[in-house]
Amino acid sequence: MDRLVAGGSDRLSVERLTLGIDLTEVGAELARRWNFPPLLQEAIRHQHDPLEAGEATPYAALISLASFLVAGFGVEMSESEMLETLPQAVVQRLGLDPARLAEAMPALRAACTVQHELV
């Protein structure tokens, strides 16, 4: 699977084709079995499509944005590159102020880099 993804394939699609399930479905099922609130279960399930899941919850959008930041900073994107490529629909859904988000980039980079190193 990793080779297909490295070659440009979408990870979720590869997981669905090869395993019949993807990481978001596994995560949501674990959350259900661990008795997480339904709102969090749905947020985990829709983290990669937070705006396409009917009435998207802010939790799904927040997980999606956090994942985006961790991945981007994990491959050493600059703060300006991150700002240019942020999913604006998700930023708007969360009601984030672009100026305050820009100010927060150094702290976000630090937090994401630490988190990325732990994984």
Please specify the SSE layout and strand pairing:
Blueprint: H1 2-6, H2 11-19, H3 23-33, H4 38-45, H5 58-74, H6 79-85, H7 88-94, H8 98-118
Helix pairs in contact: 3-4, 4-5, 5-7, 5-8
Could you give a short description of this structure?
This protein is mostly helical.
Please tell me about this protein's structure.
This is HDOD domain-containing protein. Residues 1-50 form the HDOD domain. Pfam families: HDOD. The protein is mostly helical and 119 residues long. The protein has two domains: 1-45, no CATH class; 58-119, no CATH class. Helix content is 71%, strand content 0%. The chain contains eight helices and no strands. The protein has helices spanning 2-6, 11-19, 23-33, 38-45, 58-74, 79-85, 88-94, 98-118. The two termini are 19 Å apart. The mean pLDDT is 83.
